[in-house]
Amino acid sequence: MWSERLKSILRGPRSSAGARPQANHGTRPRVGSKSGEREVFHTRPSRGLEQFFGSFRDQGGLSILDLGGACQENVNFITNLGHKFYSEDFLRILQETFADDNAAQSNPHHIDRFLQQCLDYPDEQFDGVLAWDVLEYMDPPLLLATVDRLTRILKPKGYLLAFFQSVDRQEAVTYHTFRIQDLRTLQVGQYGVRAPSQQFNNRSLEKLFQKFESVKFFLTRERLREVIVRR
Question: What's the CA gap between 128 and 131, in Å, rounded?
């Protein structure tokens, strides 16, 4: 299921404001469901998103990295604010690097290769990173290395927005897609389930982001914990 889900994610190179990434039209099949079923979207407010873009109010020309791939709604929204848009198809690269070999996520060679492919940017390049829920898919060694790299490529006082499941001891969690509708509203897609790599709570997330200046949490009706951190 994991392999099929990732192969169906939007493919494409990293993008900037001048690029023309392929649009995401929400036609990906559900993971672990019957063939022909489609991703289901609903719209909801997001306090994390509101705080993320609120921190950049009245600023232009900032550099924003989206780890969810080049969704056309997100490209349009961010570039219309006057910012530079970059994207990484993070989960596709994760699958191509590790496939279903969880042990490889503890191998320093594989970790370095993964970070060179998807987060090979100069230190302090970005004002903000939209990580969405991609950090949930990694085992601890790879996750720690990835957060360390994200810390380095963020500018001082830069912000990162990430989502984590808020219910402990789940046997399965839902995949999500996030499309920005406005400064405080997201369109959230749900398509299939997976076994969690690890469990997260407020304490473990504070430890994960301990190199950041501040960590703030918001709970949502999808049982997601929105986390916004400032470097």
Answer: 10
What does the domain layout of the chain look like in residue ranges?
2-17+28-230
Over residues 163-182, the pLDDT tens digits come to: 998 766 667 777 788 999 99
Question: How far apart, in whole angstroms, are the C-alpha atoms of residue 194 and residue 173?
Answer: 5
Residue 131: C-alpha distances to residues 32, 35, 68, 108, 147 (Å): 24, 29, 7, 22, 10
Residue 28, token pair as written in the block: 């990906």
Hey, what CATH class is 2-17+28-230 in? alpha beta
In contact, 158 and 151? CB cutoff 8 Å = no
Looking at the chain, the whole-number percentage of residues with pLDDT higher than 70 is 78
Model pTM? 0.82
Helix (H, G, I), strand (E, B) or coil at 74: helix
